[in-house]
Structures are given as structure tokens and as C-alpha cells.
Predict the structure.
Amino acid sequence: MRRALDFERPLVELQSKIEEMTRYASERGIDLSTEISAMKEKLQEVEKSIFSQLTPWQRIQLARHPDRPYFLDYITRMTTDFFELHGDRCYRDDAAIVGGLACLDGRPIVALGHQKGRDTKENLKRNFGMAHPEGFRKALRLMQLAERFGLPVLTFIDSSGAYPGVGAEERGQALIIAENLLGMAALNTPIIVVVTGEGGSGGALAIGVGDRVIMLEHAYYAVCTPEACAAIIWKDRTKAAEAVESMKILSGDLHRLGIIDEILPEPMGAAHRDYDRMAETIKQAVLRNLAELDQIPKEDLSRKRYEKFRRMGIFEKTS
């Protein structure tokens, strides 16, 4: 791990000791295999102990982990021949959302998702994964392209929210999110949504109306960030950990509430510990769900999608 959260530090220390001991044994020609094996067993025990009793706030931290895989990490492992398409044909290209054509097990698809950066320079380019209106407009353009050519759509959600700046508001941020919701609801092609990290507010919903909504074990999906909730309720952003307890925004809560359809287990230590394994888990889930959606006539997809979202929540009709 390049960067570790506070509760991951015991793992980092053990890993460092194992690497140091392995290097020492190799340089000196000493057999330390017994000691190294014992330390590896200790590492597994500590790992299980930490990740079997995570608090809700720790899981939020994992969803935001700086080394967590992003859209491009997944799509390059899951597909072949990914060809990025740029621009919204109206204003500019928004690097916070990346999308294009790809082949999933030989099947052409349209894939798109939020893309964050790994360092300051890339985060400025990607705007920390917070899209402007042109990003959502590009996403809708690609999804409508998919429908035109009969291709399934695969979207990846990982954003704290749509960008709330003045420029974004001037260019109709709320309107384009609403247009995306309407556009996705009406598409007559299979749509699979995967929440991989942060699922924040309208920024997530704008590419989140799917026939299947899948969520990684340590991701979250919420109307706002825990910090924003704490600021609204208690006027104190430092109570974000307390807010998570009440918000019911983690994968288990959302599955019980019927908001998402499936939870994908992450490797021990979370997705950032094994990119390849996590990508393969997502790929198999997508292929399985696509096979099920292929059995539904294209003209029935939008109706069933509408019914799926109408079933969410509890409400009463009044006269």
C-alpha cells in the first residue's frame, strides 16, 4: 500500500518487516523462511481482526481510499479495445467523466464512469471526480449512442457529487442531471450501474438509473456526504462519523431497503489491495446480469426500469 489509513497502519508495519526480513535473508544468504512464514500468518490474523469489525465511518474512509481503483483501472482490466470518446458537442470535454466503446468478453459495450486523480495535478484535471454539466451531457450522449447501435451500457459511480461551482450552475447543472435521469429511464438498452466508491447525490444519480444497480462492499450511496449531513443537522462537520450511523448509506443498508440489487464482496483489506481480483469480480457480476437482461425484450426494458424505481420507498397517495 502506498498510502494507508490510520487503522491500516499495523498492516503496513508488518508488511514492511516482512519485506525487510526477506531482503536481509536474500542478501546474507540466510534461511529465515520459518520466521517469515510466522510473520505472514500474523499479518493474516491482524488483517482479519481489523476488517471483520470495521465501523461505518471506517468503511466510508475505505470508499474514499486514495489508492482505491477508479474507472480506468477497472475498464482496462475488464475489457479490451477501450476507445475513449470525448466531448459533449456543446461546450467542452469534461475529464471528470470518462467514457467510450469497449469489448467485454468479445461483446461491444459502451462504458463510462467518474474518474478521480492520483495526485494534485491529475485531480485538478479530473476535478476530483466532480463533473460539470458537460460531463453529464457527454455521458448521456454516449448512452444514447449505445441505444442507437443496440449496445449495453455499463456505468461506474465514484464521486462525492456534481460540481457545485458558479460556472456549473450557470451552465445548468440541475437541468442536465434531470435530463440524464429522464434519458436513462427511457433508454431501450440494458443498463448496469456499479457503485465502486463514493456515490454522492445528483452526481451519482445522473449516471445511476439502471436495470441493475450493483455496489461494492465498502462503497456508499447517499443524498449527500456524511460531512454535509453533519453540517446541516448539527452545524458541525466533525460529527460526520455520527451522521453515518443514521444515514443508512452503506451497502448492507441499501440492499435491505431495495435501493441496490447486489453487493459485491471486496478482497480482504478492500479493493485497493487487489485491483485484478476486484475487477474480475465486477466483470463476472456484469456478465451474469447482462445474460439475464438479454432475456427481456428491448421494448420492455424501460418499462421494467421505471417500475423498479417506482417500488423504492414508502409513500401514501392522498386525495
Observations:
- Residues 71 and 115 are 6 Å apart (CA to CA).
- The beta strands are 80-84, 97-104, 107-114, 153-159, 191-200, 212-216, 220-222, 262-264.
- The mean pLDDT is 93.
